[in-house]
Every structure is written in C-alpha cells, then in structure tokens.
Amino acid sequence: MALFDDVFNKSSVYQMLFFNIKAVLIYPTLDDLKTKNLQMFERWKYLSKVKYNCEINEVYEVKTLITNQSEAIQLIQNHVYEENAVMHPEFVRIVAISYATLYSENGVVKRHLKAIANEDEVMVIEQFMSLLDEISSDDAKSSPQIFSILCGHNIISYDLPLLIKRFIVNREKFQTNKQLPYLLKRALNIKPWESGIIDTVNVWKFNGFEYSPLMLIADFLGLKKKVDLETHSEVSKQYWTIIANEKSAEAIEFVSLQSATQTNIVVQLMNELRQI
Q1: Which residues contact 150 (CB under 8 A, 6 or more apart)?
Q2: Mean pLDDT, to the nearest integer, of 156-180?
Q3: What is the pLDDT of residue 58?
Q4: CB 200 within 8 A of CB 151
Q5: pLDDT at 65
Q6: 10 φ/ψ angles, rounded to the nearest 5 degrees
Q7: Cβ atoms of 21 and 129 closer than 8 Å
Q8: Most buried one in 95, 175, 203, 252, CB count within 10 A?
Q9: CATH of the domain at 261
Q10: How many domains, the chain?
Q11: Mean pLDDT score of the chain, rounded to an integer?
C-alpha cells in the first residue's frame, strides 16, 4: 500500500505504533564538553565551523553578564552548541520514549499510552527495544502476516536515526537482545512514500514541500495538549536548568511529559485524517 492509503484507511490506526523520543545534551555547555570529553569537543569544533559557520578558538565558562567582546563570542559559541548539538545523536542521550497503540471498545477509539523515562539511557532504550522485539515477533506469526506501522512526527529524519545510533553505542551494555528489532530494520528499507512507516511531517505536506512544526498543526486543528511542545534545544536546556537545582525527578518528569504530549498529538492527528 502507498502512504496515503494507510493515512485515509479507517482501520489502519489500529496497526500503528505511535512513538516519540526525547534526548538531552550529554554535556550542557561547551565548557563541560571540553573539560569532560576533549575528543568529542574537537569533533564539535569541526562541525561548528563547517556546518554552522562558527569557529571555536578558546572556551571558558559563559558568564551571565557580558562585559567585553571575548565574552560575547563565548556566548555565541555556546548558543550555537546548545541549539544545534542536540540534533546530533553523538552528543545527546535519550531520556524518554513514549509510545501508544489504539483499540476499539464498543465502537469508541481508545488509546494505550505509556512513557519510559529515566536518567539511565541504557534502561530506556533496552525497554523500548524489548517492546519492538515483542511486536516484531507477534507480527511475524500473524496470519495473514501484517507488520505494525511505525508512526510519529519527524521520525524519519530524527527519532529513528537517533534511536538506532544510540542503540549501537550502548548495545554491549544490554542484558537482553543485542540485535536490532526487525521492525526497525524493515523501516530502514521503506521509502518515505510507502506504507509501513508514517511520518506526519510528510503526511501534512500532502505532496507539497512546506515543513510544519507539530505545534502549528496542533493549534491549527485545535488538538488537545497538556503542555506546549518545546524545541529539542529548549527541552535540553530546561532539563539541565532543573538538574542544576538538584531536582532530577522533576527534570525527568518534564521531558517525559513533553514526549507523551507529542505522541498524543500525533495520535489525534492521525485519528482526524482517517475520517476524511
């Protein structure tokens, strides 16, 4: 089936696994990165120069009050790092993964939504991979054989590469299966316009070219949400601000709520589209 065959199919939502992943910077500032991981700092210097046109020479702790040009440059360098490094899996760790499935009860669509959130990235990834392994196994045994459809916002460009790369770097620490679940391997072979993986970034373009943030879509359609969605960089910055106040449980709860809210918005969006 083609992508929009699933989107407009009233029953396809029951075959979808909705998910979202939230990650934060491993080192919240450039000074931390340089102090604690010099090798990765050198790699960021290269990225900062060639991709973000920001050359890094000296790095000091960023001051709140800027008094000279050198301190202003430090502020810019750190801003470029905070805003952009969070988009690179090599510089972040996964803190929360939310997922949801839908089912029908007396003709009413119900949802099962859960979030896995912890400071321990290995635990978060391992639990989600175990879920994907279980779903892959059940799907393979189904008759006729029908595999679950992965669905989320920007999952092709962000969530899936992030999950797989963080899986690779952590896989030796896993207690259970150290192989990539079949659902993820299958997703890598699917073209963006084919069935099997639905990225609502592509769906909402309706064969156009304009990218729309999920918050714009949610407010445009009047979809329900507990909190406004923050950008990846804002999630990371707020997480580390809360951590600085020694409130780790609150920091995890904040990121978990951001992830669950995004998953819930995508669920609502797909439920709307299947009815047109």
Answers
A1: 16, 17, 19, 160, 183, 187, 196, 197, 198
A2: 93
A3: 66
A4: yes
A5: 47
A6: -65, -25
A7: no
A8: 95
A9: 3.30.420
A10: 1
A11: 91
Cα(268)–Cα(276) distance, rounded to whole angstroms?
Answer: 13
Q: How far apart are CA 95 and CA 117, in angstroms?
A: 6
Full domain range(s) for residue 148: 3-29+87-273
Say what the pLDDT of residue 73 is: 75
pTM over 0.90: yes
- Structural domain contains residue 138: yes
If DSSP codes are grouped into helix, strand and coil, which group holds residue 68? coil
Q: Residue 190: name the closest of 166, 155, 165, 214 by CA.
A: 155
Answer for the pair 18, 11: CB distance below 8 angstroms, yes or no.
no
* Beta pairing partners, 108: 105
Q: Name which of 88, 113, 94, 103 is nearest 266 in CA terms.
A: 113
Q: Would you say residue 224 lies in a domain?
A: yes
Q: Is residue 61 part of a domain?
A: no
**CB-based burial, 204-214: b 16+ in 10 Å, e otherwise:** beeeeeeeeeb
pLDDT digits (tens, 9 = 90+) for 74-103: 788 889 999 999 999 999 999 999 999 999
Measured between its terminal Cα atoms, the distance across the chain in Å is 18
Task: Say how far apart CA 136 and CA 145 lie, in whole Å.
Answer: 11
Q: Find residue 117's DSSP bridge partners.
A: 96
What length is written for the chain? 276
Find out whether 102 and 110 touch, Cβ atoms under 8 Å. yes
Cα–Cα distance list, 9 to 4, 6, 14, 196, 276 (Å): 8, 5, 10, 13, 9
DSSP helix/strand/coil, 175: coil
pLDDT above 80 for 60 = no
Residue 170 has pLDDT above 60, yes or no: yes
